[in-house]
Design a protein that fits this description.
By secondary structure, this protein is an alpha/beta fold. 31% of the residues lie in helices and 13% in strands.
Length: 258
Amino acid sequence: MNLISPPTANPPSEAMISSLQHWWALAGVNLDYSDQPTALLRPEPEIATPVAAPPVAVTERRSEETKTVPVHSPPPAVYEDFIAWLANAKDLIEAGWSKSRVAPEGVLEPEIMIISGLPEKDRNGNVHLFNPDNRKLLEKMLAAIGCDSGHSYITTIAAAASIDGRIDEQHWSAFKERMLHHIGLVRPKRVICFGDLAAKIIFGEDMLTARKNKQFINHESSQTEAIVTFHPRILIERPLFKAEAWKDLQMLTRISAP
């Protein structure tokens, strides 16, 4: 009797792999799991659909350029009202510089209208169109060309003195427009502009350039001859320039004797 069984043939490898896969499936080996117990029969939770957040309202910031620009009142068309306006208007550019304003002096339709940039202070701090020393020299200059103070008109581009003795360039066009209106109300035969500031504002040139030729001021329907020369203050500080100033004054049309 043969007690040894004959050797069994090895099953095909494909059958073994299929059997193992079937066993893994029954055992749940191929399933994901978590550390927390879960109920296998619990219905799956619904996944909420994300809702887009409402757009954030943007508050538009107004730039400096879009801010309301203060509107200055137009200058009066009557001379007396214009002078009162210069003395009292609160929206003048120079209203923020000083409370002390200086009024023009002289007669209408003068032989000479004198224009300088800013009022001046004397030794006591009082404000004038020209301080006393400069005023004396100015009267001598007018007398040299045959014009006394009784036939002249004196004013400044700004009605008040600025803190630093300057006028910011951003205000030049407004001051020029106002001065041209002023000249039209005064109706002078000739104009003398003293100093660099007046030359730049009225003629758009520095004094040394503007004084080379006779100038003309167009205002409303008229044209008035003008010159530019050294301010009396400069002539007192540097007397050598007096000869140059005399040449400038000679460019004006001769003043007829009254």
